[in-house]
User: Which sequence fits this backbone?
DNA sequence: ATGGAATAGGGGTATATACCCGCGTCATGG
DNA sequence: CCATGACGCGGGTATATACCCCTATTCCAT
């Protein structure tokens, strides 16, 4: 009758963990979502908004707006490519430095989560992405 | 070295499941978040914004704005109590009907999730709220 | 070569969320 | 009985997210 709302549980867990990661990353003025974007741009070197959206499995317009924030903070810049429709994104020098400084903070958050949750939960969470 | 970002996994899982619940609830024009609010107001009968925020474990200002949406949709209304600072929320008749119609849709989403995830994952997710 | 389809992106609108600040109200200690 | 502090809430600002529509560009088939 009263099974817990799985959606609510996951949304709450996502909010709580996001707060933990954001708290760690606040030292370099990044949010977890921004860190993830910087990481993907760093890995790719250059990529378009649509490619980044596909990598993140997020809506293209969401990525477009999130990238605007990164551009305002001078972490990412656009470079033209042959195609007049697209613009390739890449990290600025500031972005590279900020990302490098953020990595150990992110790692600390990871470690905190690993210390908080039990191994079964870690395993279950890791398998979620494949199941949904 | 490259452990997956637990925060990203949970955020993605929350987005995906929210989309599933929202798709089911779209039949009555509600989102999962709105459904949860209506459910809590329904259970409580009457309660203030701060009480609702505490129940949801969300920021008071967040609840205030989400309740404004419900009021615009004529699902929730404010009633004055003795205290001039507070206003008590309760469901409107429309809100009661909408919530009643939404319950089986929510249940269908629950069932879909139970069919998608394996029991271990369900257990792990359920235990998350206590751990975080 | 041209016209229609496909692609890339921006902008509008809406919701969900959090933090901070200020304002009004209440309650309580002198 | 009044001043101070506690409380409740709205509003400002910022981010994250999604859907829709429009425009510009490119590509491809005829």
Assistant:
């Amino acid at each position: 009758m009263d099974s817990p709302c799985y959606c609510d549980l996951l949304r709450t867990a996502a909010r709580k963990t996001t707060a933990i990661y954001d708290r760690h990353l606040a030292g370099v003025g990044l949010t977890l979502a921004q860190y993830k974007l910087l990481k993907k741009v760093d890995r790719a070197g250059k990529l378009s908004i649509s490619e980044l959206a596909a990598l993140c499995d997020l809506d293209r317009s969401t990525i477009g707006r999130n990238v605007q924030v990164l551009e305002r903070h001078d972490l990412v810049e656009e470079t033209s490519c042959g195609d007049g429709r697209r613009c390739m994104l890449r990290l600025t020098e500031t972005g590279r430095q900020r990302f490098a400084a953020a990595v150990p903070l992110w790692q600390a958050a990871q470690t905190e989560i690993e210390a908080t949750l039990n191994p079964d939960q870690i395993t279950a969470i890791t398998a979620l992405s494949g199941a949904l």
Notes: Chain B touches chain A at residues 3-14, 16-18, 20-21, 32-33, 36, 57, 106, 109-110, 113-114, 116-118, 120-129, 131-132 (CB under 8 Å). Chain B has a mean pLDDT of 94. Strands of chain B lie at 76-80, 87-91.
